[in-house]
Design a protein that fits this description.
Blueprint lengths: L1 H9 L2 H13 L9 H8 L15 H8 L5 H26 L7 H10 L3 H4 L10 E2 L5 H6 L3 E11 L4 E10 L4 E6 L6 E3 L2 H4 L3 H4 L6 H11 L5 E4 L2 H8 L1 E2 L3 E3 L17 H9 L12 H18 L9 H7 L13 E12 L4 H5 L9 E6 L3 E7 L3 H10 L3 E4 L5 E11 L2 E15 L15 H8 L4 H20 L7 H17 L3 H16 L2 H16 L3
Parallel strand pairs: 1-7, 2-6, 6-8
Antiparallel strand pairs: 2-3, 2-5, 3-4, 9-11, 9-14, 10-11, 12-13, 13-14
Helix pairs in contact: 2-4, 13-14, 19-21
């Protein structure tokens, strides 16, 4: 008790505030009651009129916390202080590893700095059934290169929570430090035997409780040991152990731009980084093998400084972009993914478009002219290459009216002695054909859902969209000047309106749109002349 009181007296105000707020939240009572009751007696002037702990001096906060004497309450205070101590130590360790590229702490820093870390590694650590480890002295932890790797298997209980049924821990040499089945303390809804191979009969020989496992883990993780795992947050939640110095193998490798939120399977990383399949398709997990695999990945990263972008599985990339809804995975078969450049200005030659891709890319561009612009489809031998290429393009990402992923990209161009910038859209198109057809026989990019939508009669919502389009064009016309630089947007609108006209039965709307377009076109004579001059210069220079 005296030890805790001394620590409280030296604690920073931030820590004291956190303890008092948690005490308030749990309605804990000391010898002089709850926080509000304590203030009435402690402060004769303000009383309980100032309840916010942030606005009270540290002496007041310490005086309140010293009214607690129960061992359970003091252990709760110690947990909170340990949490803050660990967080401060992690910040110091991260600063110390800047020049030590090969240290385990460097990879721990990559995990800590990952955008997904705050969400994944926020635990209810203050709860009674959770255990929190201590990093200890930073000077000692910096010198330590000890690493352990863990993997856990869980079952689903009737209360919809998960319970730990197996835990395996290995050291740097892949030697087993812990391998135990865990006794269940709740009724099971699903043993998930198909996932990990463990059944009810196997668990009858389990002798360790969760509390026994926590004690073993706390002992193994002393003195700032770095704990490794794949999607480690899930294992720590099952163990109910909060350990601050961690390396999560799902967060330390590079993935294609825009997919930092993806956490690929351990098997996929093993195949990409280590060159072998961890398990055959459909085979159950092996807890020990998974723990060893996570350790091997970290060792490969440390020893070989593996810094290559990890290609994600084609199915994972497409699902993350919303191209394949999860509930419809088996409705059709994926043949290929292609990119489609829409309304590319003729000032951008095909060879400049090709330079958007790596030199060794398998891409083939197929262009078709549309007046003062052209469309170009980019066909790849491998769909994964198409997806990675799309992710590499810098630009605002969104979806077109058909739900197809698209990006607005910009290019700097030169024509004559002049220079400028142009923008156009690139779409990631899923090409789907029946299983009895050869994709190579398909001559053009098709998106079946879009085609089906185009076959349907125009609905009321589409009519309303046309009315809105007319209103928008009127407003655009009123604001427009002959030298307006938004000609590309107008051209896109013209193209969309032409497509709508083919299917629309609203003739009066179409006539109004056409009238407005003609009027706009009449005001763009200067811009047309400029385009003609630029086209002549391009032809003369052989672009």
């Amino acid at each position: 008790m005296e030890k805790i009181r001394k620590i409280l007296a030296l604690a920073e105000k931030e820590v004291l505030i956190d303890i008092v707020k948690n005490v308030q939240k749990r309605k804990m009572k000391g010898a002089k009651g709850e926080w509000k009751e304590f203030l009435v007696e402690y402060d004769s002037q303000l009383g309980d009129s100032l309840l916010d702990p942030n606005k009270r001096p540290p002496a007041c906060l310490v005086a309140f916390l010293n009214t607690f004497t129960k061992e359970q309450d003091l252990e709760f205070f110690e947990k909170i202080m340990t949490y803050h101590s660990n967080r401060k130590a992690i910040e110091q360790l991260n600063k110390s590893c800047i020049d030590v590229q090969s240290s385990p702490q460097k990879l721990a820093s990559l995990t800590f700095e990952h955008p997904e870390y705050p969400k994944c590694f926020s635990f209810p650590s203050y709860d009674e059934d959770w255990v929190m480890t201590k990093i200890g002295k930073v000077s000692k932890a910096i010198k330590s290169t000890r690493m352990l790797s863990v993997d856990c298997e869980m079952v689903l209980c009737e209360d919809k929570t998960e319970s730990l049924v197996q835990v395996c821990v290995v050291n740097r040499n892949l030697e087993v430090k812990l391998n135990e089945l865990v006794k269940l303390d709740k009724p099971v809804l699903d043993y998930r035997t198909q996932i990990h191979g463990i059944n009810a009969k196997d668990l009858e020989r389990a002798t360790c409780s969760l509390e026994d496992i926590q004690k073993s883990m706390k002992k193994l993780l002393s003195d700032g040991v770095v704990l490794i795992g794949h999607s480690l947050d899930k294992d720590l939640k099952a163990l109910k152990v909060d350990h601050s110095r961690v390396i999560d193998t799902s967060l330390i490798f590079k993935y294609p731009e825009g997919h930092t939120h993806k956490r690929p399977s351990l098997n996929h990383l093993c195949k990409t980084v280590l060159g072998y399949d961890l398990r055959e398709s459909g085979a159950p997990h092996n807890c020990l093998a998974d723990a060893q695999a996570a350790m091997k990945l970290v060792l490969a990263k440390l020893e070989n400084k593996f810094d290559v972008v990890i290609p994600l599985k084609i199915k994972e990339v497409l699902e993350s972009d919303g191209v394949i809804p999860l509930k419809r995975k088996k409705v059709f078969e994926i043949e290929s993914v292609e990119l489609f450049f829409h309304e590319v200005p003729i000032a951008v030659p095909q060879k400049q478009l090709r330079r958007l891709f790596p030199e060794d890319s398998t891409v083939k561009l197929q262009a078709s002219l549309t007046g003062d612009a052209y469309n170009s489809s980019a066909v790849f031998k491998d769909s994964m290459e198409a997806c990675n290429a799309f992710e590499s393009f810098k630009g605002e990402e969104g979806k077109d009216s058909s739900g197809v992923p698209q990006k607005l990209i910009s290019l700097d161009i030169k024509y004559g002695k002049r220079a400028g910038s142009v923008s156009f859209y690139v779409h990631k198109v899923l090409k789907k054909v029946s299983s009895d057809k050869n994709p190579a026989d398909e001559g053009s990019i098709q998106f079946e859902e879009t085609k089906e939508q185009n076959k349907k009669p125009i609905k009321n919502s589409d009519q309303r969209d046309q009315v809105k389009e007319i209103q928008r064009l009127k407003k655009d016309l009123s604001d427009r000047s002959p030298a307006d630089k938004r000609s590309i947007q107008v051209e896109e609108t013209k193209d969309q309106n032409k497509k709508q006209k083919k299917h629309s039965d609203q003739c009066d709307h179409d006539e109004e749109i056409q009238r407005l377009k003609k009027e706009i076109k009449g005001r763009e004579s200067e811009l047309t002349k400029a385009h003609n001059i630029m086209a002549d210069l391009i032809k003369k220079r052989g672009l």
